[in-house]
Amino acid sequence: MADEKSVQLLNDSVADELQAVHQYMYFHFHLSDQGFQPLADLFKRTAITEMGHVEALAERLLFLKHDVRMTAAGAVETITDPTAILEKARAMEETSARDYNRAVAACYQDTGSRQVFERLIADEEQHFDEFDKHLEHIKRFGPSYLALQSFAADAPNKSAQTPR
Fold first, then answer.
1. What residues does each domain of the chain span?
2. Who contacts 4 (Cβ-Cβ below 8 Å, separation ≥6)?
3. Which of 61, 113, 136, 144 could make a disulfide contact with 107, Cβ separation 3.0–4.6 Å?
4. Contact 56/120 with Cβ under 8 angstroms?
């Protein structure tokens, strides 16, 4: 069904996605600890999406009757500065989109795997856009933008309030 190139690309992508999950949860923990809850929540949501990517890739590998290598591609980088976090995340998403575009081209005879990679590209580009917008806001508004992120965490949650 699929050639070894497709299987290798799928397993390499599992490793990259696992690394992203670990990295983004690390960012989530530190941003939350620093009081930047909206950014922390963004990283938690993104990590959950990346977990879904691992699942889609694993399901394809199992369908092709191959094992899933559940090893992260690399170690978590200990970045705690919010701007540096966003820059790292944007670079990770840019690399993933580029790699998945290459995988689409390489899987030209494996339509199922190609379709999996095409779906992942759309998510990675959306994540890139979200991180890029936050970086643009920091560039445009400076430290005030990050201060607003910390105030948003202190705002009461209207949906959690009980009506009188």
1. 4-153
2. none
3. 113
4. yes
pLDDT in tens, 104-160: 999 989 999 999 999 999 999 999 999 999 999 999 998 888 888 777 655 555 444
b (16+ CB within 10 A) / e for 81-113: ebeebbbbbbebbbebbebbeebbebbeebeeb
C-alpha span between 89 and 116 (Å, rounded): 22
> Residue 75: what residue type?
A
- State residue 26's pLDDT score: 98
Architecture of domain 4-153: Up-down Bundle (1.20)
Which H or E element spans position 65? none
Mean pLDDT of 82-108: 96
DSSP per-residue string spanning 79-129: ---HHHHHHHHHHHHHHHHHHHHHHHHHTTT-HHHHHHHHHHHHHHHHHHH
Question: Does the predicted TM-score (pTM) go above 0.70?
Answer: yes
- Residue 70 has φ and ψ, to the nearest 5°, of -95, 60
d(CA 113, CA 109): 9
Which DSSP category does 64 fall into? T
* Residues 49/127, Cβ–Cβ less than 8 Å: yes
